[in-house]
Amino acid sequence: MGNLLIIAGLAGKRYYYARIVSDFTINFKKKIVEQFLYGTKIDKDEVLSDLENDVKQLENNYLEPALIIVSSLGFTAVSISYALATNFSLGLVFICFYSIPALCSGIGSKKLDKLSQEQSISNQEYLAQTTTIINGERVIKNYQAEIFFFSRFLSVLTNRIDKFIYYEKQRTINNLLINSIDAFCSVVPLIIGGFMTYNNYLKGSVFVGIYLVSHNISYQFNELSYFINTYKSSKQLRDNYSFLLTEKVEKKNHSTHSSLFPIRISDVSLKLGDKIIFKNFSLDISEGDKIAVIGPSGCGKSTLLNMIYGHVLPDSGEITCQGESMTEKKLSHAMTYILQESFVFEGMSIEDNIALGKAIDDDRLVNILNRVGLSFLKGHLLSAQNLSGGEKQRIEIARSLYHESQLILADEVKSNLDKTNAQQISNLLLQLPQTLIEVIHHYDEDTLARYDKVVDLSS
């Protein structure tokens, strides 16, 4: 019966441990993704590593040690009570000496903390480089760069493994030192107890009883030393994510129903590195304007769009909407930014790709799909590899229509399209009711004549 109770207790302990780990993983990953989507403190280049590497590292070096420390303290408290009740003096000797290793658990913790941070960075580098190689596979094979990129992969993989080994090596050294202290502290109480028994200060049975229970105390203290050291090593990682616990992300809708216009760019100056991009630049944008932005590569065409979008802040001057400054988040909800390679969400229907969580109005969607020439995709699940560049651009334009964006920023969206598709996209953009600011690279006088304003950044 006793064995059955022990087995049931261990099974229950394992089950509840798994539940606690699962709850921690779900809640922590949820907070990371919430901060990534709604906040600004999780970078898109690091979010995957945060989710898969750092959360696992926190499970191993923070959550597991914390749970074991709590359970060990419970067992230790019971054992200490028994030892003191049996013979206070000898029990106190055993407890004092067996507690010394736990008090020394901080040995090497700072170095271990530093190695833990380096391990986290190496995990991020490994994941980033691997993702880059996977995404660039076509270019790598096309230019026969397999050897170069394979060596880069091996470099980050080796560095990741090395950091793991360095961490485990330091943890082993720390534990070796603590275990050496523990070995010494385990012998001294035995000598004292033996002396007391030999001189009849203590019964042999009492000594054996205290020794056995103190042996359990020693085991618990060893476990505490090991896991306290491991717990401390996660401090840097815990500090990195402490803002997730203290800061609440704002989830409310920032849809801007009032008009953005006029948008006024007043005496804006911007310097990137040693290069002056804008100096006292001004531009007025009225509702319904169709504006072309031209100029040589590197003159600041895309930077201008990013400033209007709120993603890049000028060094001086201001950008206002109806005379007021607006945050990037509010601006982004009132604009559509179309890039050369528009994004398509795999495995989602054309309707969901356009509505993006907004209530679907079938009639309105059908009208928009007809307008942008994508009616043949109605009801289909999308795959980026099965769509042409022009079709992806049309999906982005459809999104802007469905979400009633007031301003469309288009950054060289026709540069990768054939002449027919480029002309169709150009006609579609210029026929939209929204204000349009488009960066164009290939143009002639007839093309520019179709726009209300032309901003030439050549000078």
Largest sheet: 5 strands, parallel
Strand content: 5-15%
User: The CATH topology of the largest domain is what?
Assistant: ABC transporter transmembrane region fold
Task: Tell me the structural class.
Answer: alpha/beta
Kindly state the percentage of residues in helix: 55-70%
CATH architecture descriptor name of the largest domain = Up-down Bundle
Rg is: 33 Å
Strand/helix succession: HHHHHHHHHEEEHEHEHHHEHEHE
Distance between the termini: 90 Å
CATH superfamily of the largest domain: ABC transporter type 1, transmembrane domain
The number of helical elements comes to: 16
Mean pLDDT: 84
The geometry reads as: elongated
Quick one: how many beta strands?
A: 8
CATH class of the largest domain: Mainly Alpha
Strands of the widest sheet, in order across it, are 5-6-7-3-8
Which regions have little confidence, pLDDT < 50, spanning 5+ residues?
none
How many domains comprise the coordinates?
2
